[in-house]
Design a protein that fits this description.
Elements lengths: L1 H26 L1 H11 L6 E4 L10 E4 L8 E2 L13 E7 L7 H14 E12 L1 H5 L7 H14 L9 H10 L9 H10 L3 E6 L22 H5 E7 L2
Parallel strand pairs: 1-2, 1-4, 2-3, 4-5
Antiparallel strand pairs: 5-7, 6-7
Helix pairs in contact: 5-6
């Protein structure tokens, strides 16, 4: 049973890649992307980076490997296919941590370029502090998170468990490349020209256009809020 389970786990990424490949074939990427860019013309222009399955109404939803005809292909480590100052808002949820730090800085610089003066960027990403705090005295939600994470992502590890396993898995799994703390993300935004960086709770914002964007339903209740920090910043 253990061998079969390990084999199934090892083959899962291959199956997911094949599924994405067939989805992309159905999209006709070049035509789909041209159509989406041509037809997207609301009064307030909003760019969603790395949307995955979370397609937002009123936003131009983009992803590196789109699964839908409603999502445009975009590689966030390269120059975005948009003119300067062409959007009012940019939003990204749990995507920048999948880029190396240097590529994350490129992405933020592109966000700055495509935003109009006064435009705002909202970045939600795992908070390094949340991982560090798992090693201290834990709250009820942290205890539930530990149990869920070990059972869901480390079922093949038996006989011992602890913070080191969950933390190491989080740093390395799902293609994670760099986990930010608040200071690093804030300074990264400022280095790209942004100002007035403010931290908000999940799905909260002083700007109505940036509320209720994060997809809390993809995890058990309370877990996305536990993991996430959200910073908004403005282009002068």
């Amino acid at each position: 049973m253990s061998l079969a389970r390990d084999l199934a786990r090892d083959l899962r990424p291959l199956g997911e890649r094949v599924k994405r490949w067939f989805s992309q074939l159905k999209r006709l990427p070049g035509r789909t992307d041209q159509r989406l860019m041509r037809d997207y013309a609301p009064a307030s222009r909003k760019l969603h980076l790395g949307c995955g399955d979370s397609v937002l109404d009123g936003w131009l939803n983009t992803d590196f490997s789109p699964q839908s005809r409603d999502v445009m292909t975009l590689n966030a480590t390269r120059r975005f296919p948009f003119d300067d100052e062409s959007f009012d808002y940019v939003f990204s949820e749990h995507m920048i941590e999948h880029l190396r730090l240097t590529d994350g800085l490129k992405m933020l610089a592109e966000c700055f370029r495509v935003l109009r003066p006064g435009g705002r960027v909202r970045i939600s990403t795992p908070d390094l502090r949340f991982l560090i705090e798992l090693e201290g005295k834990r709250s009820e939600v942290q205890e539930r998170y530990m149990e869920w994470s070990a059972a869901t992502f480390l079922p093949h590890i038996t006989g011992f468990a602890g913070e080191a396993l969950v933390i190491n898995n989080y740093m390395r799994d799902w293609g994670h490349q760099f986990i930010y703390d608040e200071r690093t993300l804030r300074e990264a935004l400022m280095s790209c020209g942004f100002c007035d960086a403010v931290r908000y709770d999940l799905n909260e914002s002083a700007d109505v256009n940036l509320r209720d964007l994060e997809n809390e339903s993809r995890m058990p209740e309370g877990f996305l809020a536990l993991e996430t920090m959200t910073l908004e910043a403005r282009k002068p």
